[in-house]
Structures are given as structure tokens and as C-alpha cells.
Design a protein that fits this description.
183 residues; mainly alpha; two-stranded antiparallel sheet; 78% helix; globular
Length: 183
């Protein structure tokens, strides 16, 4: 009974992390300019345009890909490890931004978020890192081996792709509304 309950908790954490990654990646891809401004504010030099352009595409695609892989991908150990490292890296970036007292808009969710780096953002990032650590640990300890996810995985990935499309559309709509309000 306890094993089954822990299994459900790990699956729910996995689904929640996947949703966060898919939403964040899709929203950043929908508004790469605002994400580029965040990267500039965090210290990526303007003169390194190629790096800046690469990061504004690579990070959202990585998030989107990892989110989809979390619900339907092979090699859960590899995926869980990368997600844990990514979330820890994001927490470190938020911590550094707070320590340096940078006045930068956090575009962690593209235009879906419109706040400065803050203690609340750090707490959220640390919560996500903790969730990733629990999924990493839980997959090794709790989830029974030999479960086939393939039929359900196709449906889950399709659902998360629709969710990504909705997040991207929402981010674009917000960006258009903000541009209209600024004029």
C-alpha cells in the first residue's frame, strides 16, 4: 500500500515537472526577445550574439524536449538526471541574480511571467529542484521495474504537445497585448 502511494506521488511529481518544463519552454519560444533581454540582464555579453541567439533557442527547446521525454521518453535515468541538473542550475542562476541585486525581469515562463528575480522566485526554483530530486530518487527506489509505458506515453506526449501549443499561444497573446498597451 505504501509502495503504491509513493509510486503515485512520483508519477504526479513527474507530470507536474513535465508540465512546468513544457509551459516554460513553449512560452520562451513564443517570445524569444524578452528571454534574450533576461539573458543580457544576467550578464551574457551583447557582443556574443551567436551565443545569445543559441541560448534563446536551445534552453526553451531543451525544456520542451525534457518535459515531453519525462512523460513519454526512454531512458528515465538520463532524463531525470538532466532535469535535476537543469533545475539546480536554474536555482543557482536565480540565487546569483538575487545576490548581485540585478534588476532583471525573470522570463522563466516567457511573457507568462512578468516579475523581477525575487526570494519568491528562488523558493519556487528550489521547490522545482526538490521535486526533480524526488523524481530522480523515486524512480530508483519506488517505481517498479518492467512497466511498459508505450501506449500511454503516446497519448501523454500528444496531450503535452497540445498544452505546449496553448502555452505558446497564451504567451504570444500576452506579448501582443503588452506591446499594444505600451504604445
Amino acid at each position: 500500500m505504501i509502495q503504491a502511494t509513493l509510486h503515485v506521488i512520483v508519477l504526479l511529481l513527474r507530470a507536474a515537472l513535465a508540465a512546468v518544463l513544457v509551459a516554460a519552454g513553449a512560452a520562451k519560444l513564443a517570445d524569444t526577445r524578452s528571454f534574450a533581454r533576461t539573458l543580457l540582464g544576467l550578464g551574457v555579453p551583447v557582443r556574443w550574439r551567436l551565443l545569445l541567439r543559441g541560448l534563446t533557442i536551445f534552453i526553451p527547446l531543451l525544456e520542451l524536449g525534457l518535459g515531453l521525454a519525462m512523460v513519454g521518453g526512454p531512458w528515465p535515468l538520463v532524463i531525470d538526471t538532466i532535469v535535476l541538473v537543469l533545475m539546480a542550475g536554474f536555482s543557482i542562476v536565480v540565487g546569483i541574480a538575487l545576490q548581485r541585486k540585478l534588476k532583471v525581469a525573470c522570463r522563466c515562463f516567457g511573457t507568462l511571467s512578468d516579475s523581477q528575480f525575487s526570494g519568491r522566485g528562488l523558493a519556487r526554483s528550489l521547490l522545482l529542484t526538490s521535486m526533480a530530486a524526488l523524481v530522480f530518487w523515486g524512480e530508483r527506489v519506488v517505481v517498479p521495474q518492467g512497466i511498459s509505458w508505450q501506449p500511454a506515453s503516446i497519448v501523454l506526449v500528444a496531450g503535452y504537445l497540445l498544452f505546449a501549443l496553448g502555452a505558446a499561444q497564451a504567451a504570444q497573446a500576452i506579448a501582443v497585448l503588452k506591446e499594444g498597451a505600451a504604445q
